[in-house]
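Aim 2 progress update. The chain analyzed this quarter is reproduced below.
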Amino acid sequence: MPDPQTTSSVHDELREKTRDVHQRLHRHPILGQLLKPGLVEEVYGRILVAYDSFFQGAEQARSRLECWRAFSLKPCLSALQSDLDGMALGGDKLSPVPFSWIGCPLSCLGSLYALHGSRHGGVFIAKQVASSLPDTPRGFLELGPDQENWHELLNTLATSVKSRSDFERLASGARETFVQLGEWVTRCSPNAVRESDSLLPK
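Predicted C-alpha cells:
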C-alpha cells in the first residue's frame, strides 16, 4: 500500500479498490435511464425515493457511531426531500436502509466517501434529466459536490489510515455501499414495487 500519510496515495488506492463496483453502477439498468432520452417521471421518482431511504440510512449510521460530523449527508437529504415534495412523493418515502455493513468509524468514512463522491456526476446527470423532464425538480442532482468539504474528506482519508487493516475497513465500507446502492435501486424500481408488497433491505 502507498504511504498512508499521502492524501493522493490513499485516495488513488481507494478509487482503484472500488473501481469495479463503481463502474457497475454506471451500467445499472435503472440508473442508466437517467442519461437516456425519454426518461419517464415514474422511474425518476422511484430513483429519488430509493436514494432518500439509502442516504437516510447512511446518515443514521454516521450518527449512531458519533463520527464524521463534518461529512454529514443532511444537505443531500434536504435536497431530496424538496424534490420529493415537489413531485408529490413525500408520502412514498421508505424507511431508512439499515446500514448493517457499517460497524466502525473507518467503514463509515468509506461509505461517506462513496456517497459524497457520487455527487460529482450529478450536475451532468441533471442536465440529461432536464432534457426529458424539464419541469421536474432536480435539486438533489444539481447540488453537486461541495469542493471544500470533498477535499477535507480526502485529507481525512489519509490521516485516518494508519495501517493496512485500517485501509481494508475503509475500502470495505466504500465497496459495500456501492454494491448495496445498486441493489436497493433495483428493489425500489417501479416493476419491483408492483411485484412485491414490501421493501425490506437485506
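The radius of gyration is 17 Å. Confidence is low (pLDDT under 50) at residues 1-5, 193-202. These observations will guide the mutagenesis experiments scheduled for the next reporting period.
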